[in-house]
Amino acid sequence: MFLMLLGRKSEEMLTHGEIGAMWELLSESLQSLVLKGRVEKGKLDSFNLPLYAPSVEEVKAVVNHTELFDIEHVGMVEVNWDPQDDDSDDEHMVLDPASSGRNLSMTIRSVLEPLIAGHFGEGITDELFAVYACVVAKHLEKRNAMLPSIVVSLKKATH
């Protein structure tokens, strides 16, 4: 079995780097909808996004604890925020920030839309992710952003 999941480089719990930035930009987008009167401030204040980015060591510990699989390989790679942008010759520059913003927005929407719609109502999702695409594009105009990802290759335990 092959798994790839968002992770964090540091063992330190509060150091989430670019993953944290990605969620901060989503928070900024939600706050802009509060300012426009599209989202109630109380709804935003009570929103909890249950996400966690483990370290490589934590992934190893969980797999080893279950005793169901043996780890063939585990490592950390960094992938572009935009899953479709592999054309950049310079890892510090995004060739088309607007397109990359839209691509990341659609990716995050595919994961979070049920949580967002369930808490805030379906009426804001189109607007939220359009705003998020613009906010991400502005962020990517300054520099490219990479996500630390843990890659794990597992095989069924043989004991």
Contiguous runs where pLDDT drops below 50 for at least 5 residues: none
| N to C succession of SSEs | EHHHEHHE
Strands across the major sheet, in which order?
1-3-2
Helix content: 40-55%
Number of domain units:
1
Q: How does this structure look, described?
A:
The protein has 159 residues and is an alpha+beta fold. The chain has one domain (2-156): Non-ribosomal Peptide Synthetase Peptidyl Carrier Protein, Chain A. Helices cover 48% and strands 18% of the residues. It is built from 5 helices and 3 strands; from the N terminus they run E-H-H-H-E-H-H-E. It has helices spanning 17-35, 41-45, 56-66, 97-120, 125-142, and strands at 2-6, 69-80, 146-156. The chain has a 3-stranded antiparallel β-sheet with strand order 1-3-2, with helices on one face.
Q: How do the helices and strands line up, and which of them pair or pack?
A:
Layout: E1 2-6, H1 17-35, H2 41-45, H3 56-66, E2 69-80, H4 97-120, H5 125-142, E3 146-156
Antiparallel strand pairs: 1-3, 2-3
Helix pairs in contact: 1-5, 4-5
Brief descriptors of the model:
single chain; 159 residues; alpha+beta; Non-ribosomal Peptide Synthetase Peptidyl Carrier Protein, Chain A; three-stranded antiparallel beta sheet; 5 helices; 3 strands
How would you sum up this structure in a few lines?
By secondary structure, the chain is an alpha+beta fold.
